[in-house]
Write a structure and sequence with these properties.
This protein is about 35% helix and about 20% strand. The chain is α/β, with parallel strands linked by helices.
Amino acid sequence: MKILRVLCSPRGPRSESYRLSESIVEALRRRHPDAHVVERPVAQTAISHVDEGYADAVGGYGLPADPSMTGSLAASEQLIQELESADCVIIATPMHNYTVPSGLKAWLDHIVRIDRTFASAPEGKVGTLRDRPVYVAVSSGGRYSGERVRQPDFLTPYLSAILNTVGLVDIRYFSVQGTGLGPAALAQARQKAGRDLAAFFVLPVAN
């Protein structure tokens, strides 16, 4: 089993989203001991924004998109092939200003490409990728779900919509919310995330 883990926090392994994604990896390895993880960091400048050649090709102003081309098109093809070869995907991301961080947006801009990962049809955009499980580990400074919501959530609906566009519809969200509300709130959020993971993957719950 091949797991693609997309790492979106500028804090790297110190981040709550990374920590939560580690628990997902461990749960998957209980089921698939031979699982291999491919890490794709996208925070900061790990992935550049799309360039003029990419915009011209996919916008119909230049030559058709060719994987042999340089720049963003070549990077896009590499990232798409990496995604295609994975049996499941883990996205470890913080919530930045109520939505996805810019590094994750850049990755999405590369993999969501007309005539490659989706087609334009009379009924709208139709994804062309094979569906596979996508597990999203989200961390947020405030709470965006549950009884004590403190902020809006534009991350999960957007991410679901854009992944659905390319054919990825089997999506499951896990979260550690309220990381900026103090140590007690963080401990409670971690415990809740652990219970949610245990319930979904049918794991023993830590005391």
